[in-house]
């Protein structure tokens, strides 16, 4: 599919924001400036953007523990997200969620998730709402190659087919479930599992924004038009480890270099659009520096922001109790 | 007003709420039954017939038979609640929480808090619990203390047909997630129940007997046991208070303390496993807040710390009974 210049700029802008956001988190976490557990999305940006660019605000996604990229791609505010990571009162969840629970329902972001395989069952429900109310919306559930082995994923794929729900399952396969290789932990094929449950299933090069964008358009359009659920098996790679602080000793130096130099979705995108003359290098560099500046401001504001206080401890458990 | 069973009261509550609000959908295993077969549709209406007839009124769009995949059922219900429906999901037997607890414990119960107060998840999870049907260890447990332990969900345990209807309508209309627990031994118990729709508020326990000599606190099926023992004691010249908790979360702490203070002698009857159950929790509450009003040690009538046995004589020995409650009362009267 031919993208407009505007769409190309939007795609690169989003990928740069995700990259800068998680690079900044990597630095801040290493400097001991940030609490909690964080899992970074650097290297997988083409997946979030290639998919979420087809979604409107009323469409929904459910994300994973590695969720910052999905949140940004779905329109969550970067400064509010950063404040959340610092545990600040004005964070996107009031400092009560943190990195693994970022959500903004007004943007159709149903939550990152600290439970591996936790999101896709929730996506079923959103898709059921759209089917019942005939809204034409879709819901997308992200999960990793590790989660692909969870029963929740099999149950969700089956249910989506049985009820013909407008649900898209996106397996972001970065080759590692924590420190364990997919080759060891996944029996058979993730793609075949989708097919076995009756899903329209496709394998996609996740480092190529255009491949993701094309595949996502096909399955999302179909789901909107009542043609049922689908699985995208997106093969990608992550630059950092499972969590921040992971020394990544289970990957070789050569593999790490290859991921950075040959599999970087931003570099691949940049090369494609400049060589084909679709965009000027200067336009891309401007987006890079804008994103860097935006994230820098987000970090500064987050550090200055107030923490929640004791009176915030007891609120937000129930609507009425 | 007409005589209805606990089962019919629940069925009527569902029918009335589905009529009132088109966002109410019912989902679960065999809630209609017969899906995909050439035989009878609405073949079961729930494994014990509680949802029978809903299909005829509202069709398969709103009465959704699901595969036997409890994680997907509960996740779907919560996700639907989060995006604008008001689902009533059925977890056939509460024992099956073992395969899907994450969707309650880590997802539904925590959405609102984790998301900074923005999530509204009006889901009701109906489930059957309790012993007495010779259903053995995996189909007879109570387990309500495990839900009560978790912040973010409400736990409802109706003891009679009147409460079953009013509390279910309240559960469905409530904007927080609710676990609504139906004791399977109560389904055929009848009483006068209004035909029209009504609600019973959460967190308001019900005094079913008022007396001055001893206090019984029960929940679900054990309320009936307490009432019978209170009536027996009355014939012996002793008057008893009986408090039906109705909801375990929220818990009507004021009524618990009031009931305890009225007599100073308390028997708590709880069918769940004895460690960390409602009886121990209420006992701690009373000791902490009303210690000086107590005239005798608090008695707890519970099963022993074993799985629920199958063999009928063993299960009878296991469950709280009128005899056990009566004997416990006599020890402190």
Q: CATH homologous superfamily of the largest domain in chain B, by name?
A: Thiamin diphosphate (ThDP)-binding fold, Pyr/PP domains
CATH topology-level fold name of chain A: Rossmann fold
Give the CA-CA distance, first to last residue of chain A: 52 Å
Identify the CATH architecture of chain A: 3-Layer(aba) Sandwich
Helix segment tally of chain B: 12
Question: Spans of chain B of 5+ residues with little confidence (pLDDT < 50)?
Answer: none
Total number of domains of chain A = 1
Alpha carbon gyration radius of chain B: 20 Å
What structural class is derived from the secondary structure elements of chain B? alpha/beta
Mean pLDDT of chain B: 98
Sheet bearing the most strands of chain B, described? 7 strands, mixed
Total number of strands of chain A = 7
Provide the CATH topology of the largest domain in chain B.
Rossmann fold
Q: Describe the largest sheet of chain A.
A: 5 strands, parallel
In N-to-C order, the SSE pattern of chain A is HHEHHHEHEEEHHEHEHHHH
Strand content of chain A: 5-15%
**Average pLDDT for all residues of chain A:** 97
CATH architecture of the largest domain in chain B: 3-Layer(aba) Sandwich
Give the strand order, joined by hyphens, for the main sheet of chain A: 1-2-3-7-6
Can you tell me about this structure?
The complex is a heterodimer of chains A (321) and B (333). Chain A has one domain: Rossmann fold, CATH 3.40.50. In chain A, 47% of the residues lie in helices and 10% in strands. Chain A is built from 13 helices and 7 strands. In chain A, the strands form 2 sheets. In chain A, strands 1-2-3-7-6 form a 5-stranded parallel beta sheet, with helices on both faces. In chain A, strands 4-5 form a two-stranded antiparallel ribbon. Chain B has helices at residues 6-20, 54-62, 70-82, 101-107, 111-114, 144-148, 161-173, 221-235, 253-263, 278-290, 312-318, 322-332; strands at residues 2-5, 26-28, 63-65, 88-93, 124-129, 154-156, 178-183, 190-193, 206-209, 214-218, 240-244, 247-249, 266-269, 299-301. In chain B, the strands form 3 sheets. In chain B, strands 3-2-4-5-7-6-12 form a 7-stranded mixed beta sheet, sandwiched between helices. With 333 residues, chain B is an alpha/beta fold. The interface between A and B is large, with 49 and 47 residues.
